[in-house]
Description:
Elements: H1 8-12, E1 17-19, H2 20-27, H3 31-39, E2 48-50, E3 53-57, H4 58-65
Antiparallel strand pairs: 1-3, 2-3
Helix pairs in contact: 2-3
Amino acid sequence: MIASTLxxxxxxxxxxxxxLATAARALGIGRTKAYELAKIGEFPCPVxxxxxxxxxxxxxxxxxxxIERDQPGxxxxxxxxxx
Length: 83
């Protein structure tokens, strides 16, 4: 079975932590390959091992892909400059 990738809207609706299979799907990586990469520490973004489960922070995944979530209250703030 070929892994189908997630749309931008689907990615932005993900919870704070996702399972490795969902992260793999977002990256277009097969489930088996994702687990192989996680096991050897080569998955493209940080992976947390919790018991027998692997979890990925959605923020890390979105950063890797180059998607930023809108942050409420920040749209009208000027960018900070260090002078």
